[in-house]
Amino acid sequence: MIIVSAGDSVTARLVAEAGFDGIWVSGFEVSTRMGLPDNGSLTMTEMLNVCKPIVEAVKIPVYVDTDTGYGNFKRTVREFEKIGVSGVCIEDNLPDKENSLWGGQRPLLDMEAFGKKINFKHSLTIIARTEALVRGYGQEEAFKRLNHYSDCGADILLPHQRAGAPLQVPDGKTWAIVPTKFPQYTNTKLYSLGYQIIIWANQTERVKIKAIREALIKLKEADCAYPIEKNLSVTLDDMRGLCD
Question: Looking at domain 2-201, does it have CATH number 3.40.630.10?
């Protein structure tokens, strides 16, 4: 299953149009769109407001990065279930988190405490993500945590990684990976390492930032929109076609 990020309905429809299996609503992307650091600044209400139109725009499943769960994780699951989300991801960071793609060792939530957070009856898919690898606690600690989270009811296990090569994961459980730091690894190769779910979590937003930045430079230099329009393959009718 290949899941690709989308922070708005148009991007979500483009992901579905391209034939991918699901949508990932990234806390990092949504924070960036709101001009906020990815350190737990988003509220549950803000994320719900982003996700609702995305869910309504596509027929493929939508999975949401809920960071550390917005406090009461049971309520978080209920609220996202109401808007039709297929699954949510929760990580074992402490609430004053830092984005996993940078920074050094930081304390994590106690494994038992995290297990209690997710150990309740639920209908949504719960993706349990450990930061043990990116925070320098090692592979043994990461797998110990994920096995415990599985015992506590997690449906999918996500060992977040950013250094070296992606881990080979054991059979018998459902594994996900966010290969941001491994862009050279094909989906086929990641499948062969044992991952059933591959999440390309921030590429669409970065593509948009690059394209907009370049277009604005052209607009300013030329004092008109012609240099943009002459090479722009997206017409106004194309835009209209992406809307109901």
Answer: no
Mean pLDDT of 25-39: 91
Residue 208 has pLDDT above 80, yes or no: yes
| Boundaries of every domain in the chain | 2-201, 203-244
Tell me if residue 110 is catalytic. Answer: no
Task: Tell the residue number behind the tokens 């002459």, with chain if given.
Answer: 230
pLDDT band at 207; cut points 50, 70, 90: very high
Q: How far is CA 132 from CA 25, 34, 41, 91, 129, in A?
A: 22, 28, 22, 10, 9
Q: What angle do CA 228, 233, 238 make, to 5 degrees?
A: 115
Among 38, 65, 67, 92, the active-site one is: 38
Q: What is the DSSP letter of 162?
A: -
